[in-house]
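Predict structure. Chain length: 99.
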Amino acid sequence: MPNKTDLIRDRIITIVSDDFESFAIIMEQIEPLLEMRGIAASAAEVAGVLATVISEGYVDAYELSATQPKAVKAAYDPSRLAVGVQLPPSAPADLAAPS
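Prediction complete.
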């Protein structure tokens, strides 16, 4: 059985796998998924796992804009989680296709 951190990790990757998502949306969607397994996670725990999946290359952080360019890759900054840093999926660095 996966541990709590692994479940949070898997849920984060699933949630952001098809669209840009704010941290608020990640929290909104992750809570019921974890509750189904009888697990509660604080925003700080989820943010910590989010930082890990970003550093491992499974997820990228982006800042979105109404003007061009619409999305700009950004460094993970936990102080920006409340203002809507957006997160799309990304292949791990060792699997990423060359650009």
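Summary: Residues 4-83 form a domain with the Arc Repressor Mutant, subunit A fold (CATH 1.10.10).
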